[in-house]
Amino acid sequence: MSDVIKLGHSLISYFSSSYKSHYGSIPLINKNTAKWAARDIIDSFGFDECKDAVDWYFYVKETGHDWNWYVSNVEKLIAARKDKEIDDRIRRINRQKAKAWLNG
Questions:
Q1: 11 within 8 A of 47, measured Cβ to Cβ
Q2: DSSP letter string over 45-64?
């Protein structure tokens, strides 16, 4: 089995385990079609980015998590997570500057 196939199965399993820990049940995923979608997004974005996007998806959306929605919007999830990281970094720098200015 190739690495991409294994990573595709791993991503589906990771999504399923995140879903199960959130809802207490296993999601309904057609694994036959999901494996192709998982391979495609991993090929486009990399496994780590896709896995981080699953974490972000479950962090920002309270209910209604769906594999098909995730696959269709993974690029937006990755971009939103990166934008949040940049925003956090800028805010941290600005807080440090403000403290230095107030205390200096």
A1: yes
A2: H-HHHHHHHHHHHHHH--S-
- pLDDT tens-digit readout, 61-86: 999 999 999 999 999 999 999 999 99
- Indicate whether this model's pTM tops 0.85: yes
Q: Which two tokens stand for residue 45?
A: 């974005």
Q: How far apart are CA 71 and CA 37, in angstroms?
A: 7
The tokens for 75 are 């690029």
Which is nearest to 71 in space by CA: 28, 27, 41? 41
Cβ contacts of 31 within 8 Å, gap of 6 or more: 12
